[in-house]
């Protein structure tokens, strides 16, 4: 499809997307890019730290770019033990992930890096289920791990 929004998002950079949504203008984007260049921060972290966009907005856009939806794990409340048993706590902490739901043969997992094919493949072998990866922040994951394990 020629004008598929997902394909358009994949082809644009985060700053350009936020500019097209009127979160920032050209001058502000230049400042963000300069700060990004002179720091170890990801572009989304710079945008958020400078107050141009909320972290959730940024993660939602980035998730759409990656093809992995953004999820706020805290909205799921307590995660049942039968879901948590698929991923040992040490594995969850070391890989910044937490399982939060299961549908038949699919385990839904919130990850800080859902594009890591190696981690998803290993988790699929470990759990015996297909892994459906979602993007979330490391803060969300750590809070959920501390609350649920």
Question: What this model shows, in words?
Answer:
The chain has 149 residues and is α+β, with helices and mostly antiparallel strands. It is 52% helix and 13% strand. It has nine helices and three strands, in the order αααααααββαβα. Strands 1-2-3 form a three-stranded mixed β-sheet. α4 runs antiparallel to α5.
Summarize the structure in short.
The protein is α+β, with helices and mostly antiparallel strands. The chain has helices at 5-11, 14-20, 26-37, 43-49, 55-66, 81-84, 89-95, 117-127, 138-148, and strands at 97-103, 106-111, 130-135.
First-to-last CA distance: 44 Å
Largest sheet descriptor: 3 strands, mixed
Helix content: 40-55%
CATH superfamily of the largest domain: Type II secretion system, protein E, N-terminal domain
* Total domain count: 2
Radius of gyration, in Å, reads 17 Å
Secondary structure tally: strands: 3
Shape: elongated
Class by alpha and beta content: alpha+beta
The H-and-E topology, N to C, reads as: HHHHHHHEEHEH
Instruction: Report the uncertain regions.
Output: none
List keywords for this structure.
149 residues; alpha+beta; GMP Synthetase, Chain A, domain 3; 2 domains; 3 strands; 52% helix; 13% strand; elongated
List the helices and strands and how they pair.
Layout: H1 5-11, H2 14-20, H3 26-37, H4 43-49, H5 55-66, H6 81-84, H7 89-95, E1 97-103, E2 106-111, H8 117-127, E3 130-135, H9 138-148
Helix pairs in contact: 1-5, 4-5
């Amino acid at each position: 499809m020629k004008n598929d929004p997902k394909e358009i998002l994949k082809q644009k950079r985060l700053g350009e997307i936020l500019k097209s949504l009127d979160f920032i203008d050209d001058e502000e984007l230049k400042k963000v890019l300069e700060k990004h260049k002179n720091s170890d921060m990801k572009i989304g972290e710079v945008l958020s730290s400078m107050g141009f966009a909320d972290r959730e907005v940024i993660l939602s856009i980035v998730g759409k770019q990656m093809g992995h939806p953004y999820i706020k794990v805290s909205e799921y409340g307590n995660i049942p033990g039968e879901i948590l048993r698929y991923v040992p706590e040490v594995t969850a902490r070391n890989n910044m992930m937490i399982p939060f739901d299961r549908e038949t043969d699919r385990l839904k997992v919130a990850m800080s890096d859902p594009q890591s094919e190696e981690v998803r493949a290993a988790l699929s072998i470990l759990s015996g289920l297909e892994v459906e990866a979602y993007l979330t922040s490391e803060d969300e994951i750590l809070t959920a791990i501390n609350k649920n394990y």
